[in-house]
Amino acid sequence: MVKIALLGHGVVGTGVVKVIKNKADQLFELTGEQIEVKSVLVRHDYDVDYKEKFIYSFDEILNDEEISIVVEAIGGTEPAYRYVKSALLAGKSVVTSNKELVAKHGFELMNIADEKNINFMFEAAVGGAIPVIHGVRNCLKANKVHSIAGILNGTTNYILTKMIDEKQSFDVALKAAQELGYAEADPSADVDGIDTCRKICILADIIYGNHILPENVYTEGIRNVRIEDVDILKLVGGAIKLLGVAKRTEDNKLFIMTAPHVVFNQGILYAANDVFNAAQLETDNAGLMAFYGRGAGSLPTASAVVNDIVECVCADGTIYPAWEDEKPENVADYKDVPMQFYVNVSDKADKVENAFETAEIIYIKESTAFITEKITENRLNEKLKDFTVNSIVRVL
Ligand code: HSE
User: Fold this and answer.
1) Would the CB of 181 count as within 6 Å of ligand 1?
2) Which regions of the chain carry the CATH code 3.30.360.10?
3) Is 53 assigned a catalytic role?
């Protein structure tokens, strides 16, 4: 028998209880152990048929020698960080869905797990149900990953889909995302790109091997996405998606950012709508590849959590080594890295043609919209000095 404790009883916590109960036989077959949720740390009671498991003090879990795995589903960094760190120091493996915690403290927590020869697992922290962390850790050992670009936030992808396809207002779409259990407690973390930023940092930590703190990453959310631009881009097979992007630059630095990007209709990033997440990787041997699935919601997230629990139960010591500490000098200034941009200006097309000789003009009506050649953001801003700019969106 393996006894686990669950910290938190929200969208993720309730999903974990359900999946462990519904899959008891399958989990036994996989691990040779009965997996029991012994305790659930809550702040107040809920009307469920396992109320006897509710406890109100983390110390009870910490001091309970029967509990070998702690599942953290509280979210945020306090008290989650304190609890997770104490659990690891006490020799209990930890499984979490908490991207803020991993993005901020992953380096330290993985090192503690390593020292104690136990596990700190967080598949559910990125991409909900999608095994993208396992994929990049386990399945690309024969590859160098040149780049990763992902739709990593279900709430914003859901909101953009509803606003574009069903002409819902932002507020109505956000409310629905909250009711479906997709949004963060403070949904500005979704809408302003903070959640995506945490997730692309975690993926970049794994792929490129150094801890990257979200506060050092340029982050822009979806508040300024204009439906006019979405409609213009549709005419040329483009869509606007909130992406986390990380790649190696020519001088071997890491370029990383979170921002709305134009994607074109030949790939998974264009096709991923609603709460679905997708991550597209360019690698040397495997070439282009993608991961796709539900990025948020109770059971999809619990699916990833429970998979991690199974791995902890079956593990003989630490499975995944920690990444290295920060090396801020290895991170490129995003304004110096050339890329293409979609630009919408109120100026006439001939003015655009004079300033941007190789730009592709895609729309001439009440405004002029064009896609630039590859150019740095610094240079773009210089060139646009005399224009009346309505919007600029990066192109993947
Ligand atoms: N708020 C997050 C999202 C939850 O919408 O993707 C899953 O991490």
Assistant:
1) no
2) 133-292
3) no
Of 92, 99, 104, 199, which residue is the catalytic one? 199
Query: Mind listing the pLDDT tens digit for each residue in 267-305?
Result: 999 999 999 999 999 999 999 999 999 999 999 999 999
Q: What region, left, alpha or beta, does residue 21 occupy, with left being phi > 0 and alpha being psi -120 to 50 degrees?
A: alpha
Confidence of residue 175 (pLDDT cuts 50, 70, 90): very high
Q: Which of 126, 184, 243, 274 to mutate to test the pocket of ligand 1 (most atoms within 8 A of CB)?
A: 184
The boundaries of every CATH 3.30.70.1150 domain in the chain are 338-395
Choose the residue to mutate in 133, 188, 195, 277 for probing ligand 1, maximizing ligand atoms within 8 Å of C-beta: 195
Residues 242/143, Cβ–Cβ less than 8 Å: no
Task: Indicate the CATH number of 133-292 among 3.90.650.10, 3.20.20.120, 3.30.70.270, 3.30.360.10.
Answer: 3.30.360.10
19 in ligand 1 pocket by Cβ < 6 Å? Answer: no
C-alpha of residue 182 to centroid of ligand 1, in Å:
5
Question: In the chain, where does DSSP find H-type helix?
Answer: 11-22, 24-31, 58-62, 80-89, 99-116, 132-138, 154-165, 170-179, 188-191, 194-208, 227-235, 268-271, 298-314, 349-355, 377-383
190 in ligand 1 pocket by Cβ < 6 Å? yes
Atom of ligand 1 nearest to the CA of 301: 7
Average confidence (pLDDT) over 94-99:
98
The reply to whether CATH 3.40.50.300 applies to domain 2-129+298-314 is no
Report in angstroms the alpha-carbon separations of 212 from 100, 120, 217, 279, 379: 12, 18, 8, 19, 27
Ligand 1 centroid, distance to 76 Cα (angstroms): 13
Q: Say whether pTM exceeds 0.85.
A: yes
Give the end-to-end CA distance of the chain in Å, rounded to a whole number.
49
Written as six digits, the tokens of 196 are: 């995506």
The superfamily (CATH) of domain 338-395 is ACT-like. Chain A, domain 2 (3.30.70.1150)
CB 240 within 8 A of CB 261: yes
Closest CA to 203 of 249, 152, 251, 250: 152
Ligand 1 atom index nearest CA of 177? 5
